[in-house]
Design a protein that fits this description.
Oligomer: homodimer
Largest sheet of chain A: 11 strands, mixed
Number of domains of chain A: 1
Largest interface: A-B, 32 and 32 residues
Order of helices and strands of chain A: HEEEEEEEEEEEEEEEEEEEEEEEHH
Number of helices of chain A: 3
Pfam families (chains A, B): SUFBD_core
Protein name (chains A, B): SUF system FeS cluster assembly SufBD core domain-containing protein
Radius of gyration of chain A: 20 Å
Shape of chain A: globular
Distance between the termini of chain A: 33 Å
Number of strands of chain A: 23
Structural class of chain A: mainly beta
GO biological process, one term (chains A, B): iron-sulfur cluster assembly
Organism (chains A, B): Frisingicoccus caecimuris
């Protein structure tokens, strides 16, 4: 199927320019499934009771990718979608999601992606999600993702989320439960500018012995934007968690970081580190001596920080 | 005035055994002022509208100590007291407070000490506060301190609090506002055991350029006790803050740490670190090879950690 230029442009940003109508994929466009494909091991079915898809990934899946991008270009639209992933024992899969809004109108455009991941024993899942907004309309671009991850024994989940730019308002809710031996890696990157507002709440319940979580959050707040982080790591068993939040503030921005660590078991070991500050002055000076303007130097540092 | 044996025993713990009826002091006993003294530079006046004292510390005070211990031995008593400190510009003073409850009865004994400190420009205050409970009664020993500190320009405040043991329930509220150049040092130490419960909320507003805060909280939770920490550092100006919370959990205890750092100014630099875990195993093994029992070794490590 032919994809229009604006949609393809958005796809190039949120899907690393790699989106193809091949293998297992599902492209959602303005609240409707536009095209989709299955593969031998991965089957995608539309839900019949509400918006969204069920994705079944069988245990023989090894290193395959599923792409499920969402594009909204209709000003005034609120698109709520429920995507559920059933990952069988032993599967190894990369899921590339992402949502881009092109809003050229004066009404708000909003997408709420509610995702659940049922991760079987020993399965290994990498989930990538990019959020992006563009368009010169005055309407807001709003993204409120909900991510629920249920990790069975010895499963591995890598959650890699990025809010690139152009998202006026975002409330992210992430809930994760972990059984014995499960390993979680979270990388969250976030950039806000102008009068944007972003909130990220995350709750990780480590219920099984030997479970471990490594959370890294990096953010840059520019303009008059504001960001609030509230990651919560709860150790109910013999487990390890390390939570790290680093933020750069610029201009008149505001960042609030409220990590919560809660140890309810003598062998729960949880560490948190957070730092908020301005851009590193020595790096700035070094780049400026190389001939860059202040703006160029800042852009290089910010890009490297969020990379 | 003669002090009875039980009261003297409690005083020895909460006042480092140094309490004397000399210089500026005020001993509060079972809800009544028992004895007090003034010095040339420090005057203590009983409030006429409610329980408590006003302490006036003049600008010529240099290195003097004020002792204001509180002892409760009456089971069933709830003692609420308001103590206000007016520290003049340039004063240098050490304030030794502390509250001990000896409860031999079956009813609860409770003390709420509500303290405010008005710290003048350039003044340097060290405030020490020890909380302690004892007595073989079944009634609870409850301490709910409220501490409000207003720091004028270039003042220095060192807040050193310790909950030693025997306190069944404690809710601590601390509020601090800081003007330009003010420097704050907080050391909080807390030990809970059995079914004790302790909550510590702290809010630091850094409003002036060049203000800085260094917060160190160390705690040990034993038995089935639970602890919750909620320190909040807010940077409204060019300021620095470093918050560190370290907790050891033992037995079936639970520790929850919810630090909040909030930067509202591009030159606000705020760092937080928190760690919760069990006692260091290598230290334990080392001490046991020196011939200590497991209990002895644990006691040495815990004492060193809280020292």
């Amino acid at each position: 199927m032919e994809i229009d230029k604006i949609t393809q442009g958005v796809l190039n940003v949120i899907d690393n320019g790699t989106f193809k109508q091949e293998g297992a994929y599902n492209l959602r466009y303005n609240g409707q499934p536009l095209c989709h494909g299955d593969s031998e091991h991965i089957k995608i079915k539309s839900k019949t009771d509400k918006n969204g898809i069920d994705v079944f990934i069988d245990g023989n899946t090894k290193g395959e990718q599923v792409h499920i991008p969402v594009v909204v270009t209709a000003s005034g639209m609120t698109d709520v979608v429920y995507n559920d992933f059933y990952i069988a024992e032993g599967a190894e899969v990369v899921i590339v999601a992402g949502c881009g809004i092109h809003n050229a109108g004066c009404d708000n455009a909003r997408h709420d992606g509610i995702h659940s991941f049922h991760v079987g024993k020993g399965a290994n899942v990498r989930y990538e999600e990019k959020h992006y907004g563009e368009g010169d309309g005055t309407g807001e671009r709003i993204l409120n993702p909900v991510t629920k991850i249920y990790m069975d024994e010895n499963s591995v989940f890598t959650l890699d989320t990025a809010q690139i730019k152009g998202v006026d308002s975002s409330i992210r809710e992430t809930e994760i439960t972990m059984e014995a031996g499960a390993k979680l890696f979270v990388t969250e990157r976030l950039m806000t500018h102008d009068k944007q507002n972003a909130v990220s709440n995350m709750e990780i319940q480590m219920n099984g012995d030997g479970s471990s979580a490594k959370i890294a959050s990096r953010s840059v707040a520019k303009g008059q934007s504001s960001q609030t982080f509230h990651p919560k790591a709860i150790g109910n068993a013999a487990c390890h968690a390390h939570v790290q939040c680093d933020s750069i503030i610029m201009d008149k921005a505001e960042v609030c970081s409220i990590p919560e660590i809660n140890a309810r078991h003598i062998d729960a070991s949880i560490i948190h580190e957070a730092a908020i500050g301005r851009i590193n002055n020595e790096q700035l000076i070094k780049l400026r001596t190389l001939g860059m303007t202040e703006e160029e130097a800042e852009a290089v540092i910010v890009d490297a920080f969020l990379d």
